[in-house]
Amino acid sequence: MDVVALSAESRRQALADMAARELDILVIGGGVVGAGAALDAVTRGLTTGLVEARDWASGTSSRSSKLIHGGLRYLEMLDFGLVAEALKERALLLTRLAPHLVKPVKFLYPLTHRVWERPYVGSGVLLYDTMGLGTGAGRGVPHHRHLSHRRALREAPCLKKASLVGAVQYWDGQVDDARHTMTVVRTAASYGAMVANRARINEFLREGERVVGAQVEDVVTGETYEIRAQQVINATGVWTDETQRMADTRGQFHVRASKGVHLLVPRDRIQSRTGLILRTEKSVLFVIPWGRHWIVGTTDTDWNLDLAHPAATAGDIKYILEHVNSVLVTKLTTADVEGVYAGLRPLLAGESEQTSKLSREHLVGHPVPGLVVIAGGKYTTYRVMGKDAVDEAVRNLDQRVPESMTHEVPLAGAEGYKVLWNRRHLMAQESGLHVVRIEHLLNRYGSMIHELLRLVADDPSLAEPLPGADDYLGAEAVYAASHEGALHVDDVLARRTRASIETWSRGVQAAPTVARLMGGVLGWSDKEIEEEIEVYTARVQAERQSQEEPDDESAEQVRLAAPDLG
Length: 566
Description:
20 helices, alpha+beta
């Protein structure tokens, strides 16, 4: 497979190509499920289009807990099918589909009761490990182990001695969700899918009751396109109900949004060699290693406000800090918080008023002829969700369609990654970059690292780190605009990199450099460069202010005061 570039020009061409013919499948929604559906469809030999109103993964798929996991707590709910399915997907991603993007991560589960809890938790984790074996790809992670009180504190000196009597340690997977989603999109495009971000659905095209496509607006130019397709897949996550209304149907199920807030703190604020999973009165709280940081979260509260920009409140931040501080020797304060992000989980609505008890299963519906809806689920099972949506769509195509094969399709950058990892010291010598920098690039781009290194070879100044975000090189901002579909500074700082949540300035310090580098690729004028900087700075300022508000309504009002690039 030759990996194609997601450039501004390829985006314009994709919209024109989609409008020039009737597609087999048009997928609406560029989150991980829509991306997975597009990859599934195109690898079955179907002509496929994918459109996203904003940026790839700009909604839920960039704001998760960054975990690829079976969902240990779902075992307690006796949801064995969901756990087994997710563990199979975890193994595939770790070993075959995306070893450059998905990595093992270990967690410590503190035990607080002396007699019954160790056999209870231990049997659950043993089942978790055992279920992970039945994948044909191996588990991809080590086996769990039991730790005494002393050994547990050796792994996690941050914990109060009285907060545990021992522990169980187990492994799961971790991913940069936004980068992974964009890579799924790029993989689909490399196999022939026509993909366009910043392409918004205005209405569905109808012939009688049947949906036969959609009118799509290019948000950048304002131009509209009529894109016709034999089957349309609605994979819009928390926007599912809104999209359904455009089709004049209430749908066969409804999606309810649950807000999850995460905090980032520097790695030195919590002394531990392992992640932590802690029970709360409602769910669980994770402390997740993330490069030079920890991700701490999450909350789980109902959300009925703006879906594009869920806002974290002072109460959300206080809730997380109080719960994690209950077990820490050295307490965290708001001054330790580098970054905050809020995302919405698309949960299938049920009778329970508690969002933590709503279903994480996914459902596929066919509410009107020509329109398939996929909703619910969890990030880890995106590939299965995409497969199930396409399975439903192809039942109504007048052709024989092969079975799904995405379980055998490595994502862009996966092939050759392990060989390059073994050669990373030689690559460092050849490029002049430190080996740690090569490792970082390999784990973001895999075998596509050569494209980055060519940029650096042609312009050595691109080897300089971004100001205030020195985990990332200038070359990465250029590459994001030329190869990864980034059209705005926010796309680079919030999703192609994670500078917006990993740095004290939340990316503001890097914004002028990123705008200048992107402008060179996208042909921006000096005025456009300044506007990009101003819009990004205003967005960060509004988010900071919203996080000082006491409730969702006031936080949203402050957040929505910032300009929106769409």
